[in-house]
């Protein structure tokens, strides 16, 4: 499909960011220039922002943002060009996809293991944390700074993006990004038409060298099954959380198209051989996706979440070309 819209969006975003930053000194992490937001100003250096039905009392001027555990927030930061002062690592490093926004960012622990002392030392204005964290972790973070748990549910992607945009004064960039996605979606639906009406499309993630499926509201599934209107396999419809599937189950699903997300950081050194292993498995010999060359590994960065703004835009753009070839 045409990818020019991404370039146009990037140029528009640069123009917006330049306008927002005019008159500001420097370009430090997290925030630039003068912000506006629709939250309620308290007049005492605080503001109330609403997110997913909950109100948060936050500093009026947020300049020091720490992200821990919430890959969704990092993807949104990438779309909005927001540089956090601190962020989690995966396998001891920031994922390459976040290179544009982590040049000055301090590591504050792994994705599932925030380093509270490092976060405290950064003196953040706001902490964006994962909804997957247990209550005791959130309690520790809230002792340091106001903490907002960013939803990991893919269908909350617009709320997630708009919240960070409001927090950092980049609402216009967010709205342009959302509008661009839906414009591309309409084009994609027109290209696909009814061609996948009788086809089974499945997306899986590899973790610890095992295959996992996800509910319809998680991973890239909302893009495939809700946005593009492809019928979800029964096993996906029935899934309530991340669910391990065996090769026998994969053969039973019998997908015509198979998307695999396989990150080296989440698997053994043999991860690069996965596709060959699946193709050579006698149980899977007759699965159309494998037998007919319609299995696609890492069409977007394997560490992307699939549902948030950045990976949603990237996945749609790449997947549609593969689904219509």
TrEMBL record:
What protein family is recorded? Belongs to the bacterial solute-binding protein 8 family.
Q: Where in the cell is it found?
A: Cell membrane
Organism of provenance = Shouchella clausii
Q: Transport: is it a keyword of this entry?
A: yes
Give the record's GO CC terms: outer membrane-bounded periplasmic space; plasma membrane
Q: Which GO terms describe its biological process?
A: iron coordination entity transport
Q: Which Pfam families match?
A: Peripla_BP_2 (PF01497)
Classification via InterPro entries: ABC_transptr_periplasmic_BD (IPR002491), Bact_iron-sidero_bind (IPR051313)
Region annotated Disordered, chain positions: 22-46
Which residues does the UniProt record annotate as the domain Fe/B12 periplasmic-binding? 65-325
Topological relation to the membrane, as annotated: Lipid-anchor
Which region is the signal sequence? Answer: 1-24
Protein name, as recorded: Iron-uptake system-binding protein
Major location (coarse): membrane
UniProtKB keywords = Signal, Transport
Gene3D superfamilies hit by this protein: Nitrogenase molybdenum iron protein domain
